[in-house]
Amino acid sequence: MTKPLNKSELVAEIAAHGEMTKAEAVAALDTVVAVITAQMVAGKTVILPGLAKFETRDRPARQVRNVSTGAMIDKAADRAVKISAMTGIKAAVNA
Protein backbone atom coordinates (compact mmCIF):
# COMPACT_ATOMS: atom_id res chain seq x y z
CA MET A 1 0.00 0.00 0.00
CA THR A 2 1.31 3.41 -0.89
CA LYS A 3 1.55 6.40 1.40
CA PRO A 4 -1.50 8.70 1.19
CA LEU A 5 -1.10 12.17 -0.31
CA ASN A 6 -0.99 14.78 2.46
CA LYS A 7 -2.29 18.34 2.20
CA SER A 8 1.05 19.97 1.34
CA GLU A 9 1.68 17.42 -1.43
CA LEU A 10 -1.85 17.92 -2.77
CA VAL A 11 -1.38 21.71 -2.71
CA ALA A 12 1.89 21.34 -4.65
CA GLU A 13 0.11 19.22 -7.30
CA ILE A 14 -2.78 21.68 -7.57
CA ALA A 15 -0.34 24.59 -7.92
CA ALA A 16 1.65 22.79 -10.62
CA HIS A 17 -1.38 21.65 -12.65
CA GLY A 18 -3.33 24.87 -12.19
CA GLU A 19 -0.38 27.15 -12.92
CA MET A 20 -0.81 29.08 -9.68
CA THR A 21 1.21 29.76 -6.56
CA LYS A 22 1.07 27.43 -3.59
CA ALA A 23 -0.65 30.18 -1.58
CA GLU A 24 -3.40 30.43 -4.21
CA ALA A 25 -3.71 26.63 -4.25
CA VAL A 26 -4.05 26.52 -0.45
CA ALA A 27 -6.74 29.21 -0.59
CA ALA A 28 -8.62 27.35 -3.35
CA LEU A 29 -8.47 24.00 -1.53
CA ASP A 30 -9.52 25.54 1.81
CA THR A 31 -12.44 27.30 0.09
CA VAL A 32 -13.66 24.07 -1.53
CA VAL A 33 -13.47 22.22 1.79
CA ALA A 34 -15.29 25.06 3.62
CA VAL A 35 -18.08 25.24 1.03
CA ILE A 36 -18.62 21.45 1.00
CA THR A 37 -18.63 21.39 4.81
CA ALA A 38 -21.13 24.24 5.07
CA GLN A 39 -23.48 22.63 2.57
CA MET A 40 -23.34 19.28 4.36
CA VAL A 41 -23.98 20.92 7.75
CA ALA A 42 -27.06 22.46 6.15
CA GLY A 43 -28.17 18.96 5.14
CA LYS A 44 -27.54 19.36 1.42
CA THR A 45 -25.88 16.86 -0.92
CA VAL A 46 -22.82 18.02 -2.87
CA ILE A 47 -21.92 16.39 -6.19
CA LEU A 48 -18.58 17.00 -7.86
CA PRO A 49 -19.17 15.55 -11.35
CA GLY A 50 -16.62 12.88 -12.22
CA LEU A 51 -15.24 12.81 -8.66
CA ALA A 52 -17.55 12.21 -5.71
CA LYS A 53 -20.94 12.65 -4.11
CA PHE A 54 -21.00 13.90 -0.52
CA GLU A 55 -24.18 13.38 1.48
CA THR A 56 -25.43 13.05 5.04
CA ARG A 57 -27.67 10.32 6.34
CA ASP A 58 -29.73 10.32 9.50
CA ARG A 59 -29.00 7.37 11.79
CA PRO A 60 -31.58 6.37 14.38
CA ALA A 61 -30.87 5.89 18.07
CA ARG A 62 -29.43 2.44 18.66
CA GLN A 63 -27.51 0.22 21.00
CA VAL A 64 -23.78 -0.20 20.48
CA ARG A 65 -21.13 -2.25 22.24
CA ASN A 66 -18.48 -0.56 24.37
CA VAL A 67 -15.33 -2.25 23.06
CA SER A 68 -13.38 -1.87 26.29
CA THR A 69 -16.04 -3.36 28.62
CA GLY A 70 -18.23 -5.33 26.22
CA ALA A 71 -21.35 -3.69 27.70
CA MET A 72 -24.17 -2.49 25.47
CA ILE A 73 -24.83 1.25 25.68
CA ASP A 74 -27.45 3.51 24.15
CA LYS A 75 -26.27 5.82 21.39
CA ALA A 76 -28.35 8.85 20.47
CA ALA A 77 -29.53 9.51 16.93
CA ASP A 78 -26.97 11.30 14.79
CA ARG A 79 -25.99 12.04 11.21
CA ALA A 80 -23.36 10.16 9.23
CA VAL A 81 -21.36 11.39 6.25
CA LYS A 82 -21.33 9.21 3.14
CA ILE A 83 -18.93 9.80 0.25
CA SER A 84 -19.42 7.86 -2.98
CA ALA A 85 -17.04 7.82 -5.92
CA MET A 86 -18.62 8.85 -9.22
CA THR A 87 -18.37 6.85 -12.43
CA GLY A 88 -15.68 9.06 -13.98
CA ILE A 89 -13.11 8.47 -11.26
CA LYS A 90 -14.02 4.77 -10.98
CA ALA A 91 -13.38 4.35 -14.71
CA ALA A 92 -10.07 6.22 -14.50
CA VAL A 93 -8.85 4.07 -11.60
CA ASN A 94 -9.82 0.84 -13.34
CA ALA A 95 -8.44 1.77 -16.78
Automatic annotation (TrEMBL):
Per the record, the domain of life is Bacteria
Alphabetized GO MF terms: DNA binding
Could you tell me which Pfam families the record lists for this protein? Answer: Bac_DNA_binding
Question: SUPFAM superfamilies, from UniProt?
Answer: IHF-like DNA-binding proteins
Which keywords has UniProt assigned to this entry? DNA condensation, DNA-binding, Plasmid
Q: Which family does it belong to?
A: Belongs to the bacterial histone-like protein family.
Alphabetized PANTHER family for the sequence: DNA-BINDING PROTEIN HU, DNA-BINDING PROTEIN HU-BETA
Protein name, UniProt field: DNA-binding protein HRm
Give the organism's phylogenetic lineage. Bacteria, Pseudomonadati, Pseudomonadota, Alphaproteobacteria, Rhodobacterales
